[in-house]
What does this fold into?
Amino acid sequence: YSSLSDMLSDSCPDAVWIGVPPAAHGPIERMCAERGIHMLIEKPISCVPPEEAQNLKDYLDTYCPHLVVSVGYMLRYSKAVQFIQNLLMEKNIRPTSIIARYNTAYASIASPMWWNTRSSG
It folds into this structure.
């Protein structure tokens, strides 16, 4: 397909996984919502100003209340994160969040946007 719009119109999927850099989420989310497509969105859900994110939420609440839209917290259930949570709990430390950076073997991804935390979260 030459465009996402063409693909969504032609294939009409029931659900999509959005795994592009967060700065590119907005238009894709809106296109999918307008077509009634359920979404699993990679975290962070957005890097846009709060007003833009609120506009999308309002649109979804008003016009698409039936859609399932979820954020993929892929490391939430990893054994390493669970181990750290348990270790902290044993010491009566109750974390509200655990923030970590991990390395991947995605050296073949050429776009510098993926590696820029300002645009990719």
About this structure: Strands lie at 15-18, 38-42, 69-72. Residues 16 and 39 are 5 Å apart (CA to CA).
